[in-house]
Every structure is written in structure tokens, then in C-alpha cells.
Amino acid sequence: MAGMSPFFRSRTQRDHLVTLIRKPGCHLCDDAQAVIEKVCGDLGVRWEQKDITQDPDLHAQYWEQIPVVLVDGRQHTFWRVNEDRLRKALTG
């Protein structure tokens, strides 16, 4: 879509950002990371992780839900990550 304003350009998978909010020693967090690595790797989507023990705001907001997965800054899921559901959120 050459010449089209970036405002009107449709989002591509590569435009997404997945954030895993986790804590050290959390087996559910490790499981969530494995799913995120697989899905994001397959789709070429960027992802990051944040340590809840290093951020008081994240700790206050998400402590009882970790691991938490955000897609583009919005909460997608918590505790367990469903591979198909995450893939759909990033491709739909």
C-alpha cells in the first residue's frame, strides 16, 4: 500500500508486542514463556518479559494473577496461556 498514510495502514503481526509479566521461580511463568516463545517465534511477533518483583506498579496490579500476558498493552490472559487463543489474538 505504497503512498498510504501509516494511519490507514492495517496492523500486521509484526506490529504486535506481547508482554509476559512474571516472577522468578514461577513454574506457570516458565510454561507461559514457552508458549509465547513458540507462538511469537512462529509469527515473527516481538515479545518481552517484565519481572513483577522489580516493578511496584506491576506488583500491585497483577500479583494475584501471574503470569499475566499482555497483547499490545492490554491484558490477554493470566495463569495459563492457551497457544491457539494467543495465536488467534495475534493473527485475527
UniProtKB/TrEMBL annotation:
Q: Which Pfam families match?
A: Glrx-like
Coiled-coil region: none
InterPro entries cross-referenced by the UniProt entry: Glutaredoxin-like, Glutaredoxin-like_YDR286C, Thioredoxin-like_sf
Regions that span the bilayer = none
SUPFAM superfamilies listed in its UniProt record: Thioredoxin-like
The identity of this protein, by name, is Glutaredoxin family protein
Species the sequence originates in: Streptomyces thermospinosisporus
